[in-house]
Structures are given as structure tokens and as C-alpha cells.
TrEMBL record:
SUPFAM superfamilies in the cross-refs: IVS-encoded protein-like
Superkingdom in the source lineage: Bacteria
InterPro entries: 23S_rRNA-intervening_sequence (IPR012657), 23S_rRNA_IVS_sf (IPR036583)
Protein name (Swiss-Prot/TrEMBL): Four helix bundle protein
Length: 119
């Protein structure tokens, strides 16, 4: 993987948007629990993708990307929960849900390919 690849760019941009939503949730909506969960999972995706770049082995690389995929799925869950519970309206999270879905597809494809080549 190249350092300036699509995955790293998307996950970094996504993390910035998650931080922006988190700040809104805390300052305006006074929502502290779900927003903190979203902040952790949403920023962890890119952190794990970055760690994968510096992996010490193929197994470590696959592990870090698998964790990033799980964090993306968790982030997607928290976004849906915030929307469906009425804490935020759909327009506030629609783009984030799309971004997260794209990231999940990219990560899922990479992890699936790595698993296929390991068998």
C-alpha cells in the first residue's frame, strides 16, 4: 500500500468529519455517551489503517486492517443509532453514512483478498 492511498485519505477525512459531529453532539445536543462511542470508533478506523502501513508482518497487516473494518462497522452502527433515535436528523449524518459504507467496502475487499491469498 502506498502512503497516499485512497483508503488513508478517506479514513482521515472521515475522522475529521466524525470529530466535527462529535463536537456538535457534545456542545449543542448535550449528548455525551453515544457521541464518545462514535468518536472512538470513527477515528480508530484511520489509525488502524495507518498502523497497517507500518505492520511488521503480513499477519500484522491483515490484523490491523481487520480491526479497521470492525471499527468501521461499529461507527456505522453508532451513526444509524444516533439518526434512528432522533438525536440527529438524517441530513446531519447522511454523508457520513455514505462515507463509512464506502470505507467498509474498501476494507472488506482488502481483508477478503488477504484471506483468499492466505488459503
Amino acid at each position: 500500500m502506498k502512503e497516499n492511498n485512497v483508503l488513508l485519505t478517506k479514513t482521515y477525512s472521515y475522522a475529521l468529519k466524525i470529530i466535527e459531529l462529535y463536537l456538535h453532539l457534545v456542545k449543542v445536543e448535550k449528548e455525551y455517551i453515544l457521541s464518545k462511542q462514535l468518536l472512538k470508533s470513527g477515528t480508530s478506523i484511520g489509525a488502524n489503517a495507518e498502523e497497517a502501513i507500518g505492520a511488521q508482518s503480513r499477519k500484522d497487516f491483515k490484523s490491523k486492517l481487520s480491526i479497521a473494518y470492525k471499527e468501521a462497522r461499529e461507527s456505522y452502527y453508532w451513526l444509524r443509532l444516533l439518526k434512528d433515535s432522533g438525536v440527529v436528523n438524517e441530513s446531519q449524518v447522511k454523508a457520513l453514512l455514505i462515507d463509512c459504507h464506502v470505507i467498509m467496502k474498501i476494507l472488506g475487499s482488502i481483508v477478503k483478498t488477504l484471506k483468499y491469498h492466505d488459503s
